[in-house]
Backbone:
């Protein structure tokens, strides 16, 4: 979680050591002060995270402890990132149900009890094979076939219900696949689009677990963070929805490989589709319709495929050089 505290805003981020929490906390700390943004997780944080601002241990399933954190730190915003992603969730449905649904209810109850504003991300996985795929609009049939997707649809509907019944300031964005150099893949179906960059610069070979023509919506992590902050800061009067799609680009494994080859012509990609992840990907949209986000609160991405590839390759080169690793 990310928790924002009570000077002008106070925030706690649950699941804060995952792909998104650390970067979002850094942006919020630059705007609101380091002491007003608290990261939380059940994992031991690396030293560079501890040095940047407050961190607390918090188990999303321990409601009493979460309530103590909120009360003692005068929290006003709660950002809830704790979740098991699509492929990992399918491997442990019982645990995914606990974390993704019971954990959600804990933070929703906390938000209601303490008049918090709450942001929870949703996902491309909230759509299913009967949803419109090209593009998928904000409002349509959603019949996902993963526990991750089911839990996120549940989240969207519960948040909207609590907003209209009790006035809860619940906000939710459906993220596409998020591509970042700073954290390793975390068990999502779109994670190949992170791994391929590391493989291109380390071994020159990537084995992809999806078919080469599998098109999915993707986004650079900096666009994802910026969309989240802009959405959190948007006045309520501008919002016609509580859950919005956000989009930036849509590509296939072969298309991103071809773009990488403009920089690294030696890259070899082989395809060995994994039945679980391929089935999941085939049930998801190939593009998002984010026209409501663009109209209501001015969303506009900065990164297309060319910019994404150039930035990722340069960032991974720099990181490998800093770590003393070779570059293929």
Residues:
């Amino acid at each position: 979680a990310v928790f924002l505290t009570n000077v002008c805003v106070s925030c706690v981020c649950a699941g804060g050591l995952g792909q998104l929490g650390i970067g979002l906390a850094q942006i919020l700390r630059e705007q609101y002060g380091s002491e007003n943004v608290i990261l939380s997780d059940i994992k031991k944080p690396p030293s560079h995270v501890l040095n940047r601002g407050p961190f607390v241990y918090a188990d999303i399933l321990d409601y009493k402890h979460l309530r103590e954190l909120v009360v003692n730190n005068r929290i006003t915003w709660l950002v809830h990132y704790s979740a098991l992603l699509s492929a990992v969730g399918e491997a442990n449905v019982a645990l995914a149900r606990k974390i993704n649904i019971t954990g959600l209810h804990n933070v929703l109850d906390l938000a209601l009890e303490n008049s918090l504003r709450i942001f929870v991300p949703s996902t491309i996985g909230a759509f299913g094979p009967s949803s419109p795929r090209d593009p998928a609009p904000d409002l349509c049939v959603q019949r996902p076939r993963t526990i991750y997707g089911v839990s996120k649809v549940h989240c969207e509907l519960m948040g909207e219900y609590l907003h209209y019944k009790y006035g809860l300031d619940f906000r939710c964005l459906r993220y596409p696949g998020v591509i970042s150099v700073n954290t390793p893949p975390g068990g999502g179906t779109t994670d190949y689009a992170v791994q391929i960059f590391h493989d291109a610069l380390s071994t020159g070979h990537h084995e992809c677990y999806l078919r080469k023509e599998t098109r999915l919506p993707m986004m650079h992590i900096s666009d994802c963070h910026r969309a989240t902050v802009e959405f959190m800061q948007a006045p309520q009067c501008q919002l016609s929805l509580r859950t919005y799609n956000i989009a930036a680009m849509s590509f296939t494994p072969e298309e991103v490989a071809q773009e990488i080859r403009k920089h690294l012509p030696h890259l070899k990609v082989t395809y060995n589709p994994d039945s679980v992840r391929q089935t999941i990907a085939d049930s998801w949209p190939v593009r998002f319709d984010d026209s409501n986000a663009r109209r209501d609160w001015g969303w506009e991405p900065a990164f297309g495929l060319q910019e994404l590839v150039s930035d990722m390759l340069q960032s991974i080169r720099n990181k490998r050089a800093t770590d003393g690793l070779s570059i293929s």
Remarks:
- The two ends are 37 Å apart (CA to CA).
- Residues 83-322 form a domain with the Rossmann fold fold (CATH 3.40.50.720).
- Residues 220 and 303 are 6 Å apart (CA to CA).
- The longest strand covers residues 169-175.
